[in-house]
Design brief:
It is a single chain. The protein is an alpha+beta fold and 311 residues long. The chain has a single domain (6-309), classed as Ribonuclease Z/Hydroxyacylglutathione hydrolase-like (Metallo-beta-lactamase, Chain A, 4-Layer Sandwich). The protein has ten helices and 18 strands. A hairpin with a 2-residue loop joins strand 5 (59-68) and strand 6. The protein is globular.
Length: 311
């Protein structure tokens, strides 16, 4: 596995891939975007992200490994192996060599100090745990897993099938009613064992530092309290956007949302907020689902945002 090392100040960042997804059509992923509209904008089309002949989008699921001040930090942990996801065939009962790839990047599970979660969805928290033949236990035994307090409480309420509590949390979030709910089972098998092991830390995603140089930036909509993660080192910034975007087309058309977004109106606002910050600050953007290097620059031309990969 070839590993590109990206530098942000004194920090280094590498991508550890888990799987590629090429089965989604554009109309499935982004229902409001007509493929014929895309064809009228050849400057949007990159063969690494879109097959114009089949109208299929190319996506990636991966984890970012940060080394900063002697610490090893993971941003999200992908899907995980052996997870029961009957409603998501592409994620159901995987058997991927993710830990071997992590080792090739120079990281053993016990060396991970922190895991930062942009949100609690099936393809972002799965490797938090693994099945030891008897139960789900932490994959990274020495890591502190940091997530949104509100996102955690929402998961607790939904897992307990406590609709009154879930409705109260949605009211606290102030982003309206959802059009979909998180995938069942994810919270139980990938989050609850972390708390049971005493490895969980919950924070408010309000831009305050959660670790030196690292902040959770509120960007709800894709999930109830989705956070984009900002890393600043020596005056340079990286933004790990999580699922404010799934595909570069969402930057060209910031009015659309993916099929996976729970609160569409808030998702649109958050994407524009984070994308504008990245464009204006010159931050390097680390995507959760773009293929190829998954890293790039966002610019703004007064009508829409634009994307350029950095290799």
């Amino acid at each position: 596995m070839e590993t590109t090392i990206f530098k942000v100040g004194t920090a280094t960042v590498v991508k550890v891939p888990e799987l590629e997804l090429k089965d989604f059509t554009l109309s499935q992923l982004l229902p409001a975007l007509d493929p014929k509209v895309v064809e009228k904008h050849p400057d949007w089309i990159d063969c690494r992200t879109y097959d114009i002949k089949t109208a299929r989008v190319h996506l990636s699921v991966h984890t970012w490994v940060i080394r900063l001040s002697g610490k090893v930090i993971l941003i999200d942990t992908g899907v995980g192996n052996d997870k029961d996801r009957p409603g998501l065939k592409a994620l159901d009962h995987l058997n991927n060599p993710f830990l071997q790839r992590l080792a090739q990047a120079g990281v053993q599970p016990e060396e991970v100090d922190y895991i930062l979660l942009t949100h609690i969805h099936a393809d972002h928290v799965g490797w938090n745990t693994f099945w030891n033949g008897n139960k789900w236990i932490p994959t990274f035994p020495n890591a502190t897993v940091i997530c949104s307090e509100l996102e955690w409480r929402y998961g607790v309420a939904l897992t307990a099938v406590d609709e009154n509590a879930a409705a109260a949390i949605r009211a606290d979030a102030g982003i309206g009613d959802p059009v979909r709910l998180p995938t069942p089972g994810v919270f139980r098998d990938s989050m609850m064992p972390i708390e049971e092991a005493g490895r969980l830390r919950r924070v408010v995603a309000n831009g305050s530092e959660v670790l030196e140089g690292i902040r959770f930036i509120s960007s709800p909509g894709h999930s109830v309290d989705h956070a984009s993660i900002s890393l600043v080192s020596n005056g340079e910034e990286a933004v790990f956007g999580g699922d404010i975007t799934h595909h570069p087309f969402e930057l060209h058309r910031p009015d659309i949302v993916s099929m996976f977004c729970e609160f569409p109106d808030a998702a649109r606002r958050s994407r524009q907020k984070i994308a504008r910050h990245v464009a204006e600050s010159g931050a390097l953007y680390f995507s959760s689902h773009f293929p190829a290097s998954s890293v790039g620059r966002i610019t703004f031309d007064e009508e829409s945002f634009n994307w350029q990969f950095v290799e």
